[in-house]
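Q: Can someone sanity-check these two? First one:
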Amino acid sequence: VQLQASGGGLVQAGGSLRLSCAASGSRVSFNGMSWFRQAPGKQRELVAVMSRSGNIMYASSVKGRFTISRDNAKNTVNLQMNNLKPEDTGVYYCNAVLSGSTPVNYWGQGTQVTVSS
């Protein structure tokens, strides 16, 4: 299974971007699908996560501005980012968890988001 992320770019503060992530390879049913980000010199942090049943959690810093969505049939997860701020700058990674006796984490390759002030 491979995750392919896309949609990053350079945007001015207040602008919007939409990130997409698609899984390819074996046909699997993921449990949680999420987005993380990592700013220069900082640890990777959770941005948003959505369970297979539709439960959602956002980091407090993005609540009200970002929206996560997923298509279970297509194994895709998206992140709509509105009202972007310079502090949203970083590399964004999609993540998917395959549940089982030993959960398996899959990561996308990362996509750069840069928000200029």
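And here is the second, same format, sequence then tokens:
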Amino acid sequence: QVHLVESGGGLVQAGGSLRLSCAASGSIISINGMGWYRQVPGKQRDLVALIALDGSTNYGDSVKGRFTISRDNAKNTAYLQMNSLKPEDTAVYYCRTDANFNRYWGQGTQVTVSS
């Protein structure tokens, strides 16, 4: 089993920054993609950013140029640096990890951006 622990969410003013972390642990044989999605009540879960094992990245259109995803393969950890935050970035952010040919989700961390 693979466990994901997210951290770094919280309350920030518009224009501010936050850094999310997602650490994978457990019986890990292999990890491929890692990434973040976000969801607000009543809406679908949307892609924020993904990073492949080779470091290639994919971002949702609304965060391009403001958010940066990275990973430390030695620590099985992904990071999401969020800059120039906007109130519309307010959501629960979920970590996603593809490990051992399965997909795992974190419990979610709340990010709230005040205007």
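A (reply): Looked at the second one. The chain has a mean pLDDT of 96. The chain is about 0% helix and 60% strand.
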